[in-house]
Amino acid sequence: MARYVMQRLLAMLLTLFIIVTVAFLVIRLMPSSIYDDPTISAEVLDMIQAKYHLDRPLIEQYGIFMKNVLLKGDWGISMKIQPNIPVFQVLGGKVPLTLFINLVSLLASIPIGLVFGAFAAIKKNTMTDHGISLFVILFISIPSFIYATLLQYFAAYKFGWFPITYTVSDMASVKYLSLFLPTLSLALDPMAKVARYMRAELIESLNSEYILLARTKGFTRSKAIFRHAIRNSCIPVLNIVVPMFANVLGGSLVVESIFAIPGMGSLMIKSINANDHYLTIAILLIYSLVSLMTVLVVDLLYAVIDPRVRMGGKKQ
Amino acid sequence: MSKNNPILQVKDLTVSFNAFAGKVQAVRGVSFDLNKGETLCIVGESGSGKSVTNKAIMGILSKNAVIDRGEILYDGMDLTKLTEEQFCQIRGKRIAMVFQDPLSALNPIMKVGKQITETLCVHQKLSHEQAKKRALELMAAVGIPEPEKRFDQYPFQFSGGMRQRIVIVIALACNPEILICDEPTTALDVTIQSKILDLIKEIKQERNLSVIFITHNMGVVANMADRICVMYAGKIVEFGTCDDIFYHPAHPYTWALLSAMPDSESRERLFSIPGAPPNMLMPPKGDAFAPRNHYALDIDFKEEPPFFKLSDTHYAATWLLHPYAPRVEMPEELKRRIDRMVEEDMEYECK
Amino acid sequence: MRIFKATDPEYLSLKREDFKLHTREEEIHDAKFETKPVGFFKDAMLRFGKNTASIIAFAIICIIVILSAFGPMMNEYGYNDQDLDRANLPARIKGCEGINLLNGSTVLKNRRKDNLDNTEKYPEGCILDVFNETVVNGVEMCDIRIDTYIYSGYGDDYFWFGTDYLGRDLWTRVWRGCRISLIIAFAAVLTNVGFGVIYGSIAGYYGGMTDMVMMRFAEIVQAFPNIVVMTLFIMYFGNGLFAIIMALVVRDWVGTATLIRAQFYRFKDSEYVLAARTLGTKDAVLIFRHILPNAIGPIVTRTMIAIPSAIFAESFLAYIGLGIRAPEASLGVLLSHAQTVLLQYPYQTVFPAVLISVLMISFNLFGNGLRDAFDPTQRGT
User: Fold this and answer.
1) Which of C14, C123, C220, C306 has the most CB atoms within 10 Å of its CB?
2) What is the C-alpha separation between A218 and A29, in angstroms, rounded?
């Protein structure tokens, strides 16, 4: 197990290294230059370029960048958004907010999805099942930014139940209330996906022989389902949860901009548009890091829940 | 039909399934008795209704199944009329079942120990330690080496034969009176099969169990049965003791089954039954086997044959036994086979 | 249980002549196939035909495709005809005068009542309704619903979906945007599937070292978070149509490749392939005639399910400012513009939002129907 984790961590470091390299090269090779303000005189421009080693060949720039990163842990400074502030300081305040709405929505949606999916499976082909299936197809199909827009217009603007946009406040309740709608609009899609998958898996489990065996042991149907089918069905559901975590920060970009949440999304858009290169690299790094980490954690969780994976047995 | 002490009586059981295309009549008026301490084998090809009969006895028919008629009498109760809660007091505790495929019958992600003890905890209200102790005893009794270690393992860490032993332990956990074995060796390696059969025989003797043994393998039947019911298309076509069926078969379907049994001695080509079983959406009029029967009479296509009594224990449902019928002998080849079997019987005991 | 007794009246009536061996015209033989053989595709289509929801979804998709092709030509406005005087006009359709969303009306709040007769301020016939009358500081105030078109001097025009902040006709732009979105989605998915199939076939068919190297590469590509890859890609290649299509493909093909590779591993060692191989069949023929057709069901299904995700991804790019270059518009670009003025001009959001939702639902239902048709065992997953 420990060896497996080590292997995964090493592979992750390698991937991160490749991502940072590619990001660096791509950003530097972009046609527009960092300082294209015509009011800056050529002399000043040369000085700035020299200061940031922009006048050196690309490979050398990359060497300097990597050296700073590896030896000093220095990822460079922001050049445009908040000039001369180290990039991670700029990022510092933004990451928690983005992480919060994403993780909360995802973590909340999984159990709710499981419950609805299980309910639909047990009540298969009844009105309950059809009702849940209808919502599932709606939630899966309609993009999250449409829900965000709808919720913002009706729940916030027309009825005034929630703040229209993100509200900075000392009072935690106000702040979290203003984060409720974005979190909700992010939660609907994963919820529906989990419910749909859970329904299918549970229906399969319900037809399995071990449920019959459990019933011949003297469990009632509902007890047999509860003790034997539910957990077995949850395991394959993890298969679709993993990619959700892999995309964990990406999903909220649009919702963040709709609700004016000063998270990583808006920062990324700004830094890209402003050619704030080091900041952009740092943001891409954070996105990759969080996504790789969450996938690793979920994979390990998989091993904990499913003995067949843990013991090196075959998956189903 | 022996009148000595039936523990379970099935009377005119009729089960059908509501399927997409219509009502499938899986079991059409099956009656038999299970006597205390005997092994009753139910044989028949796939789809003959043998599993459905036993699922009805266990009360685990699927949702779209309907018991149209008949009763299953056990201990003064009619099992077809019980509620789910009442049935739970019987299932596992007094009637238990061993499944065909131990791999799919065991929950893949639950330790086998827990799968055994949960029955004990439900029915006998044992504490965890007591249940574990009992489970370990049983595991040792069915020949699982190192039960202590095995107790905490998962089904995928067991071999097929060991898995089936676990399923048997689960069935035996609460000391049931009746054990239903639904093709317990079909999914196993040939080398393991005889071991599992011996085990079932052994525990049956030890615990004085009454066993219903479902199979389509006549070799297994010869090895296990006290009495045999032959089923075809949802009906019993012949029943009798092991000797009756093997040495004096009377129904053409039984002849065909016996001829289809592989035999190391015979040099002849293996016989197969021509044609396919009838569509149970619309069971044919008369004798369901008639269209595949080389000895079919005209009346077989018109009237359903009743049971003809051959001896006190032996009945067969075929018009060939009617006084009007022409005298038809079983096929020569089968006769030679049976003669051989009788000879072998001197050293090979069939009980 | 009926037991025969010779004396039973039931059996007395039996006739002796019935008891003779039945004579058959022909030998007993195993059941023959009475139904005509049905091809795989025909079978799938028959199953698909039974799925009403999917059929309706398919019809809706067809209608949307036709409208995206011809919708922009249905009125006289071009997609880039700007006129700031007619900016932000709400939707107005002939014959829909009773419906507030579609009659070009706007509510103006807190107007002085004595001003209402002033035709310079309120051109004749522009006031449709007066309500919420109040008196504030001795001045009579009220809310009025006006015909925005007459109010701004465009009484003869009918913008079916209204106009945007530059006065461009939204009907034209919505359908043109839908066209762009569909083109991007279809092109991206077809490229994705095409490349994935070839890549997966090669890896799966040749196996061994080739497979190892190709799959490790695919794994590395997939390790990049989607958003990061798309962003880098568009930053580098700009936001033209082709760049956006490629940005959607750059990571998604891996899924297709894995699927196809798995199919190859399943079938390449099967007896019939070995048989064909012993007959000296060429690799290409083995791949395309013998193995790949097995994967046709999953491929078609995957294609259909991938289209809504591609539409979503494209809108997503538009929202973060990486959408298609102006003045061209996609549904995502329209939505992200409309979003900024949602509280003032909600109608600008309504039409593209409804369209994209209907489109996504239809594609999903259609895809589900196809999946069930091609693989009945996969029902519901």
Assistant:
1) C306
2) 70
Indicate yes or no: CB of C3 within 8 angstroms of CB of B321.
no
Strand locations in chain B (E): 6-19, 22-35, 39-43, 65-74, 77-78, 95-98, 178-182, 210-215, 227-232, 235-241, 308-309, 315-316
Are the beta carbons of C22 and B298 separated by less than 8 Å?
Answer: yes
Tokens linked to B318: 């075929």
pLDDT of residue B343: 80
How distant is the Cα of A270 from the closest Cα of chain C, in angstroms? 9
Partners of residue B67 on adjacent β-strands: B15
Give chain C positions within 8 Å (CB) of B326: 19-21
Q: H or E stretch including C65?
A: helix C52-70
In this prediction, residue B39 carries a pLDDT of 92
The pLDDT tens digits for B276-311 are 778 878 777 888 888 888 888 888 888 888 899 889
CA angle A50–A55–A60, rounded 5-degree value: 105
Q: What is B1-94+174-351's CATH topology? A: Rossmann fold (3.40.50)
Query: Where does residue B265 rank: exposed (0-12), middle (13-18), buried (19+ CB within 10 A)?
Result: exposed
pLDDT digits (tens, 9 = 90+) for B137-161: 989 988 888 999 999 988 888 888 8
- Cα torsion through C326, C332, C334, C340, rounded to 10: -110
Contact call for A146 and C320, based on CB within 8 A:
no
Average pLDDT over residues A261-276: 80
Domain boundaries along the sequence of chain C: 92-152, 167-378
Q: Give yes or no for a contact between C378 and C371, defined as CB atoms under 8 angstroms apart.
A: yes
Determine the residue type at C77: Y
Length of chain A measured in residues: 316
d(CA B141, CA B146): 11
Give the residue with greater pLDDT, C208 vs A197: A197
Answer yes or no: are the C-beta atoms of B168 and B199 closer than 8 Å: yes
CATH architecture of C167-378: Orthogonal Bundle (1.10)
DSSP string, B21-70: TEEEEEEEEEEEEEETT-EEEEE--TTSSHHHHHHHHHT---TTEEEEEE
B170 and A215 within 8 Å at the Cβ level: the answer is no
Structural domain spans, chain A: 2-91, 96-262
CATH superfamily of A96-262: MetI-like (1.10.3720.10)
Residue C344 DSSP label = T
* Cα C220 to Cα A235: distance, rounded to the nearest angstrom: 26
Task: Provide the pLDDT confidence category of residue B349 given band limits of 50, 70 and 90.
Answer: low
pLDDT > 90: percent of chain B: 18
Tens-place pLDDT, residues A206-226:
888 888 888 888 888 888 888
Query: What is the share, in percent, of chain C residues with pLDDT greater than 70?
Result: 93
Please report the residues numbered 13 through 32 in chain A whose beta carbons come closer than 8 angstroms to any beta carbon of chain C. Answer: 15, 18-19, 22-23, 26-27, 29-30
Instruction: Look at phi and psi of residue A174 and say left if phi exceeds 0, alpha if psi is from -120 to 50, else beta.
Output: alpha
Which of C11, C14, C22, C50 has the highest number of chain B CBs within 10 A, making it the mutation to test binding with B?
C22
Supply the pLDDT for residue B346. Answer: 65
Which chains border A (3 or more CB–CB pairs < 8 Å)? Answer: B, C
User: Hey, are the CB atoms on A220 and B85 less than 8 Å from each other?
Assistant: yes
Segment B94-103, tens digit of pLDDT: 899 888 888 8
Q: Kindly list the residues from chain B whose CB atom is less than 8 angstroms away from the CB atom of residue C27.
A: 274
Tokens representing C240? 């033209």
Statement: residue A299 has pLDDT above 80: no
**CA of B154: which chain A residue's CA is closest?**
A307
Chain B neighbours (≥3 Cβ pairs under 8 A) are A, C
Do the beta carbons of residue A211 and residue A225 sit within 8 Å? Answer: yes
